[in-house]
Amino acid sequence: MRRWLLLALSLSGCILGNPDYNGESAGASETSGAGGSTSAGATTTTTSGPTTGASASASASASGGTGSGSTGAETGTTGDASTTAPVDTSGSSSGGCPDGDDDGHCDDADNCPLLSNPGQEDGDMDGLGDPCDPCQHDGPNPPAYPASVGPVQEITISNVSLNGGDNFITVAPGAQVALSYHWQVNFCECKGCYTQAMVGIVDNPPNQCFYNWGSEKNCKPWEGDITENFVAPAAPGIYRFRARRTWEVNECKTEAPLDDANSEFAAICVN
Ligand SMILES: [Ca+2]
Ligand SMILES: [Ca+2]
User: Fold this and answer.
1) Distance 88 CA to ligand 1 centre (A)
2) Nearest to residue 64, comparing CAs of 243, 253, 204?
């Protein structure tokens, strides 16, 4: 009966009086502002993996380079249509000019000659049509990402940097990516509950936790700076970073789907 009671409480997302939770000996540190050092269940190192159980698991898995990322690639479908390419008015590759993909644009002027793209969309305007462009931010019109995001699910992410640079970079397949950011959470609605905050690459787990502790903390913001290491997927494409919150009993489940597009704060182009 006790086991069933605990399970029911766990599923409800609110474990009161858990013996592992003592309020102050671990978890996030309270800081007074940007730059304050802290740890929230994950380490703040750029060279070694996190030391907590959940985050260490994430690091170990990440080091194995297992992410295929095939489902995370986004080829993009929006952008400015070019109207300058010659058009094969015959409607067939057998007449007029060669048109291998039969999209009405001659091969020698088609920005994606092997994939039909009648609209010739090219969002970043680098001459490669969106369906053929593995890196849609290296032209004169790259997509914009906010410098900060949130609060989304009571999480705010800011000061984002990838490998010490911008929040949108190009990396090789399987490359190490160091994600640095400032985080802030304000979980206070369920005293004694465990809650987690994590970031990760969409459709390319594991995520990595930066907060895994009680949700109340006197109902005031907790924040810190952290760097976590990820492994870029193997398949070319654009992959986005998101944040999310979960409810587990002192456990960061790093396979959780990052399903809230409003939490996007960075991206990598694997190329
Ligand atoms: Ca064509
Ligand atoms: Ca392009």
Assistant:
1) 8
2) 204
